[in-house]
Each structure stands twice: as C-alpha cells, then as structure tokens.
Amino acid sequence: MTITKPDSDIDLMDLAPFIDGTENDLLARLRAAEPLHWNTEPEGPGFWSLTRYSDIIEVVNDPLTFINGEGTQILSRKVEGGTSTVHNTDPPRHGKLRKLVTPHLRAVKISEWHDVIAEAVDDILDSVAEQNEIELVSTVSALLPIRVLGQVLGVPLEDCGLLLDWTNRVVSDDPEFMKGPDEKERAREELFGYFRELTAKRRAEPRNDIISKLVAAEIDGEPLSWEDLAAYYFVLVGAGNETTRNLITGAVLAFDQFPDQWDALVADHSLLRPAIEELLRFVTPIRAMRRTAARDVEWQGTTIREGDKVVLWFQAANRDPEIFEDPDALRIGRSPNDHLGFGWGIHACMGSHLARAEVTTFFQKVLERGIRFRPLEEPDRLHTNQFHAFKRLRVAVETS
Amino acid sequence: MKLVVDWDLCEGHGQCEFAAPDVFSINDNGDLEVLEGPLPGSELASVEQAVRRCPVRALKLEG
Ligand code: HEM
Ligand code: SF4
User: Fold this and answer.
1) Which of A87, A99, A206, A272 gives A212 a disulfide partner, CB atoms 3.0 to 4.6 angstroms apart?
2) Per the domain annotation, does A8 fall within a domain?
C-alpha cells in the first residue's frame, strides 16, 4: 500500500534483544535515528513504530485518526476474540463503556479494597519470609494481582487460583503454557463458562463488586449483552494481571541494579509514592500498544496510509532524554514524572489506582518487615516484544 | 491562579483525584466534582500535577 518506506537494519520483530534484556539500546537508537520506522513482518503487512515521547502523545491525543478498533496488538489479530472490548472500541461507544467501570476503580473506591490488598500481601509475605531462596514470579509476583483483581471483580477468594491458571493459558503466547494447539481455546471456554455462572449469581444477588455493577449497567437504555460482559471481564483480567505482576518483578530487578535507591527508600518510606511512579517509567510493563491509521496522514515528510498499523513504544518514550533527565537511571524521587507507563489519552489505564495500591502496599510491607529480595541470576523473560514480562526469577530473601 | 475544567472533555478518569485528592473527587456517577472557591496556595503543586496528568487535557490553570 505505502510507496516509500525507509528501510533500516533494526527489526523489532526479532525477539532476541527483548529476551536478553538489551532492548533499551535498540529503542534508543531508533528514537535518535529513525523516530518513524517501518518494520516488516514475516506474516503480515508490517507496521510503523514511534519512539519519541512527543510523537506518541500526539498520536494518543488524536483517537479519531489513530484508532483502536482494528486491534491493539502488534500482530494483526485480536486476542480478545470476536467481541470488542473497551480497549479496542473507538469513540463514541468507547467513552460510554469506560464510564460503566471507571467510577468503581477510582482512587477513593480503591481505598475500600485496602484490607483485601493488605491481607493478600501479608499471606504472600508470610509464606516466603522463612525461606532463604524463592522463585519470585510464581510465589509472589503472580499471586498478588490475580487475587486482588479477582475479588474486585467478584470472584471468591477460593477461585482465584483457577483464574490464575486460565489467564496464564489464555493470555500468554509462550509455548511453555501451551500444552497443545487448542489449549488457548479450551482455557478461554472454561474461563467464560465460569464467568457465565458467576454473572447469573451476581444478577440474582448483587454485591459490591464490578460484575454486579456491570450486569446492572445500561448503555443508551440497553443492558450489556453476555458477549459485552464477557469481553469486559476478559479485558480487565487480561490488562490487570500480568502488568501488575511484571511491575513487581521488574521493580525487584531495578532495585538490584540501583541498590542505593532501595537504601534511600529504606531510610525514608515516604518516598514510596514517587518511587512507584518511577518504577512504572523504568520498567514499563506494557512496552508498546498499537493503533491503526483511519485516514492518510502526513507525518514528518512520510505518508502513513489509511489502514497502516502504528505501534507506540511507551518504553522508548519513557526513556526519552528530551523529557527525562538521565533516563536510564532509576531515581525514586523523580519529579515531575509524567511517564507513559499507564499510557495516555482516552485509552489510558483504567486500573491505575488499583495497580498503584497493590504495588504500594506490597513494598510498604516489604519495607516494614525489613525484607530485601536479591536476584540470584538473570531473569527468564517471556518471549514477546510487546510486554516487559518475566517468567522466572530466583531471588534470595534477606531479612534485617 | 484559577482552575478551569473543560467539561466537554472531562471523562472522569480521576487521574486528577489521585494527584490532588483535596481538590478533585469523582462522584458515584463517574463525574468530576471540584473544590469550590479559590484554590488554596498549598494545593498549587498537586493541582499542576493533576493538570499534566489529565489524559484528555481537560484541566487548565489560568492567571
Ligand atoms: C502496573 C500495572 C498496569 C500497567 C503498567 C498498565 C498499563 C496500561 C496501559 C499502558 C494502557 C494503555 C493501552 C493503550 O493505550 O492502548 C492500559 C489500559 C488499560 N488498563 Fe492497565 N495497566 C496496569 C494495570 C491495570 C489493572 C489492575 C487493570 C484493571 C483493573 C487495568 C485495566 C486496563 C484497561 C481496561 C485498559 C484499557 C482502557 C481503554 O482502552 O480505555 N490495568 N493499561
Ligand atoms: S483527570 Fe481529566 S478527565 Fe479525568 S476526571 Fe480529572 S479532569 Fe476529568
């Protein structure tokens, strides 16, 4: 479709740098030399990549030109399945869908979940406190988000383990979780079957949870269809689970790389709030999200054609030296810190307050207990360029 | 300094509430409510952060 597309030796579909952890060098090269970069795809039309902070802000602030409705993943498929979620819906319906849930995820509402979060963190830390060495992802990072998110949605605590297993199989593309080609489909069916029953229960007896709110909600006088409800549950679980998990693991690695920053936090716990923002910037659990051009756009002397995919590298923007001084350093007191860890614009993260509350409570309690996690080896990273995701990390548990 | 909200833009994201909880709150309908009257000077820094945080640029400080 597009006539002139500059070629470059940088290939963001080559997963090697994302697996060995050298992707920031690659993204920095691109941001400096070729801020609009065309990337071919082995089995697909190819995509544009944007790596500058100001360019990405421009795109996310123009949601009628750069739309989500054609998909948000780099590869041209919708993990979400047939029905559109709030994430891959465009205005005007997007805002209506969003407003059904945002009131229940805002900061003051999240404080009502404080006890649930604190209890989850305590249980998790109790279980590892006596050990010298643990595998952090499976015993800590993966357990907290699903347990909290599950309960906020309305899943009883005892079923949160099931939820974790299903989401690993549905969301992940990693062959390790995939026992066979139909595994994803089967996990998705099990998950939806479970939610269908839960929906019926909450419809009959509403509680103070998101499922109860959604079954009672209406858009333009119409209740949501089962497909709309299922898509909503799925996007909340898909967006809120692995991201938070990877922020926790990524934070432990970041503090290992910058131990003086952990010492500073130990000395002054009140730095925790800016520290969490800095970790969101530094780790960037969602490295990139995709838009699609709804019309031809002239962009820095090149034409982005209608239908072209445009990938926004939040991770590159979060280290843009134009915006962040000494961007490759973790500085827990950094201020201002308008990172794109939660994205920006109309699709900015809906779960940001919940995620912040979880990760803040987690590190608050780690600090109070005098625990320090020390990575013992390089992490095992998930084979994906779009998410900054960790499969395994062995750490020593030190208590002072 | 005067805080101006563009009510056509505001989508109730509540990022402002996180930055300056004493000035902004979102009600149960998901709509933003703003502290009435002049802005206390002590709130200026957090309100500036709220202005930058608002993902749809619905907030402005004037004057
Ligand atoms: C540290 C944890 C998290 C990170 C780093 C994160 C990051 C993001 C980012 C970057 C986006 C923007 C996507 C885009 O522009 O295309 C986003 C959207 C979203 N997030 Fe999060 N997220 C986190 C936790 C959560 C949680 C806990 C929830 C659920 C309660 C959640 C629900 C959503 C939803 C529903 C969207 C789509 C919003 C829309 O399209 O309007 N996220 N998130
Ligand atoms: S952050 Fe912006 S959109 Fe969200 S409630 Fe505040 S003013 Fe409205």
Assistant:
1) A206
2) no
- Domain hosting A104: range is 16-399
In angstroms, rounded to a whole number, what is the distance separating the alpha carbons of residues B22 and B45?
A: 12
Question: Does A7 fall in a domain?
Answer: no
* B59 close contact with A: CB closer than 8 A: no
Residue A18: CB atoms within 10 A of its CB come to 22
Identify whether A2 is part of a domain.
no
pLDDT digits (tens, 9 = 90+) for A280-332: 999 999 999 999 999 999 999 999 999 999 999 999 999 999 999 999 999 99
pTM over 0.90: yes
Task: Measure the CA–CA gap between A191 and A145, rounded to whole angstroms.
Answer: 17
From atom 4 of ligand 1, which residue's Cα is the shortest distance away? A243
**What domains, with CATH codes, occur in chain B?**
2-62 (3.30.70.20)
Ligand 1 contact via A98 beta carbon (within 6 Å): yes
We report the CATH number of the domain holding residue A68 as 1.10.630.10
3-state SS assignment for residue B60: strand
Count up the domains in chain A and report the number. 1
Answer for the pair A397, A369: CB distance below 8 angstroms, yes or no.
no
Phi, psi angle pair for A28, to nearest 5°: -65, -40
Cα-based distances in Å from A195 to A87, A232, A347: 20, 11, 25
The amino acid present at A177, given as its one-letter code, is F
DSSP state of A50: E
Choice from A67, A70, A117, A243 to test ligand 1 binding pocket (greatest atom count within 8 A of CB): A243
Mean pLDDT of all residues in chain A? 92
Helix residue ranges per DSSP H, chain A: 16-20, 23-33, 53-60, 93-105, 107-110, 114-129, 136, 143-153, 160-171, 183-204, 210-216, 226-240, 242-257, 259-267, 272-283, 314-317, 352-368
